[in-house]
Amino acid sequence: YPLRRQRQMCIRDRTEDDPSIVGARVRIRDWFIGVPASKVSRPIRRVRLFRRERGRFLARETVHESVQLDTDGGRVVYLPGWIEHFGVESVALRVEKINRYSTYRAEQDLARGKGPSALKLFTVFPLRFLKSYLLRRACFSGRRGLIQSVANAYYAFLIEAKKFEERELGRSGGMGGASVSSQARAGDEEVGQDRNQGDERG
Questions:
Q1: Which of the 8 DSSP states describes residue 88?
Q2: Helix, strand, coil percent values for the chain (each to nearest 5)
Q3: What angle do CA 39, 40, 46 make, to 5 degrees?
Q4: Is the pTM above the cut of 0.85?
């Protein structure tokens, strides 16, 4: 989306005459079921502006793309305002993304030697829910905040569950390392088939 002229001037005023600034963080506000998150909730702040020679996107190394900055001798500033995020506006889309992203994250953890943890399998859901609902103040977003907090907790739980599944299948001589990926692809194909059938019926 194009930046408004007022926002452009603000960015220039804060960064143009200061070469020590290598990047800038901005608040991200999620929209869910047609309404933005409460301004009282604690938003996620991400680097979304940076000098080309001092940073790069990590699109393949991480599930959620992020920016790696060279901050040696430099600093990162915070910009006012918000980026409105419309990526998870419905419950169906949220669940679909949770399943797909948890698969990718489980694969990354296993590739890095981070195996399943029995303790996390029992505790990650309630802890992640409390972090989202209370510490990040999603409770101020009403029922939408409750749904989002449960979804965040479920995402964290699925990561551990899928790592456990992968290890158990490997021990029993099952599908092994291909199980998580193949199931994710099968799920994506089923979603696509359901959509196509729905289009034909319409």
A1: T
A2: 55, 20, 25
A3: 65
A4: no
CA-to-CA distance for 186 and 36, rounded, in angstroms? 33
Single-letter residue type at 95: V
Residues 78-99 have pLDDT tens digits of 887 778 888 888 999 999 999 9
Give how far the C-alpha of residue 186 lies from the chain's centroid of Cα atoms, to the nearest Å: 22
pLDDT at 79: 80
What's the rounded Cα separation, in Å, for the pair 139 and 161?
27
| CA distances (Å), origin 28, targets 2, 39, 48, 126, 164 | 16, 11, 10, 24, 32
Structure tokens at 164: 């456990």
- Does residue 57 contact residue 159 with C-beta atoms inside 8 Å? no
Q: What are the b/e assignments for 126-144, b being 16+ CB within 10 Å?
A: eebbeebbeebbbbebeeb
pLDDT digits (tens, 9 = 90+) for 122-142: 999 999 999 999 999 999 999
Contact 116, 158 (CB under 8 A): no
Cβ atoms of 76 and 21 closer than 8 Å: yes
